[in-house]
Design a protein that fits this description.
Blueprint lengths: L3 E7 L6 H6 L7 E6 L6 H5 L6 E3 L6 H10 L5 E4 L4 E2 L2 H13 L6 E10 L5 E12 L5 E3 L5 E3 L4 E10 L8 H11 L6 H13 L3 H14 L4 H17 L3 H10 L8 H13 L3 H13 L8 E2 L5 H13 L3 H14 L4 H16 L2
Parallel strand pairs: 1-2, 1-4, 2-3, 6-10
Antiparallel strand pairs: 4-7, 5-10, 6-7, 7-11, 8-9
Helix pairs in contact: 6-7, 6-8, 7-8, 8-9, 9-10, 10-11, 11-12, 12-13, 13-14
Length: about 350
């Protein structure tokens, strides 16, 4: 059976650190906590779980902090978590099983990451991330912000799931780091340009965001997934700027990089729906249902499940095709049985169907 070192970087996490450590302490063989300057009770709480607490002077660089955390590990494999991550009881058991069964020739193990849950506790956004890596391979983190772990070799995808349950978010932290780097003359990589554009977009600096997304796309160095997401985000920016023509052109540009994802199809369908181009909208929402994604990246499940069915229901209602509308609403309800929008639409469609009898 392999052994596991848990490595975490933390700061002022007194409200959530116990929840995380409680969910993993009985599974891992070592806990390493790297504190980057807590002024609350974080370190005091952590002392109940481990004596391996290390101070790291914060330098606006997450990769350096994570690489320092990995340097403290002493076991066969290194597991990384953030303070707002948890393993449910089911996945604690699966991680224990993984420890017992993992082939020691495996270099890195990916796990599903439930990034966001909806109000019913259903998965809304998920990703796959490499969470468990062989210590002897000395894999390194890269990137001051939105850091990523560069792995290679023999890779394995497990059935372990990490769930993200945030209680707080410092929405200005990342953009401030990027802008301090820029002021210091740092030359952004393609990946940094993409993520800086994301920060600009989230701060509603839409024209600046568009410029940086276009710079990223012109570099032609990012992954196909990031290029597609850049196009979708540019479209969002143009919609905020009330430029529907540019918005749809940006969506169509995403088709240059890969077959359309469910999200791309839904977004194109939405723009046609707003213009009452019902047949075109039906085509694209129908495509969303038929598409599937196979990447390691972000999966927004609504776009391939209940959302296109609900929109198709509304579109068929526009056309007076109430049987088709009801069929798609029922399909949406199977994914979200308690959603008020779907339930209200069900009542409305029953009234239309009964009126015709």
């Amino acid at each position: 059976m392999v052994t596991i070192s848990l490595c975490m970087i933390v700061k002022n996490e007194e409200s959530i650190i116990e929840r995380c450590l409680d969910s993993v302490q009985h599974v891992v063989d070592e806990i390493n906590i790297i504190d980057t300057g807590s002024t609350d009770r974080t370190k005091e709480i952590v002392q109940n779980y481990t004596t391996r607490i290390f101070d790291f002077i914060w330098c606006d660089d997450f990769a350096k902090a994570r690489n320092f955390s990995f340097q403290q590990a002493t076991k066969d494999y290194t597991l990384w978590l953030d303070a707002d991550d948890v393993l449910t009881t089911e996945y604690q058991q699966k991680l224990l099983q993984l420890k017992k069964s993992l082939n020691p020739n495996i270099d890195a193990v990916s796990m599903d990451y439930y990034v966001q849950l909806d109000e019913d506790g259903e998965i809304e956004i998920s990703e796959k991330r490499y969470r468990l890596v062989k210590r002897s391979r000395n894999f390194q983190w890269q990137g001051a912000v939105h850091e990523f772990l560069h792995v290679k070799g023999k890779l394995f995808h497990s059935d372990v799931v990490i769930t993200h349950l945030p209680l707080k978010k410092d929405r200005d932290r990342n953009i401030q780091i990027y802008e301090r780097l820029m002021a210091a003359g740092h030359s952004f990589s393609a990946r940094e340009t993409f993520h800086y554009a994301n920060e600009l977009k989230s701060h509603q600096r839409f024209l600046e965001a568009i410029n940086h997304y276009n710079t990223f796309l012109d570099l032609d160095l990012g992954s196909a997934e990031d290029k597609i997401q850049a196009c979708l985000n540019v479209s969002d920016c143009y919609q905020h700027l009330r430029d529907s023509k540019q918005a749809i052109q940006s969506l169509l540009q995403s088709l240059l990089y890969e077959r359309p994802s469910p999200e791309t199809c839904c977004r194109i369908g939405h723009l046609f729906m707003e213009q009452f181009k019902n047949e075109a909208s039906i085509y694209w929402y129908s495509q969303a249902i038929q598409q599937s994604s196979t990447t390691l990246g972000t999966q927004r499940r609504a776009y391939s499940t209940w959302l296109p069915h609900l929109q198709l229901s509304k579109l068929y209602d526009r056309l007076g095709l109430y049987e088709n509308a009801h069929e798609h609403n029922e399909a949406a309800r199977r994914y979200k049985p308690n959603d008020k929008r779907i339930l209200d639409n069900e009542k409305y469609l029953y009234s239309r169907l009964n009126k015709g009898k």
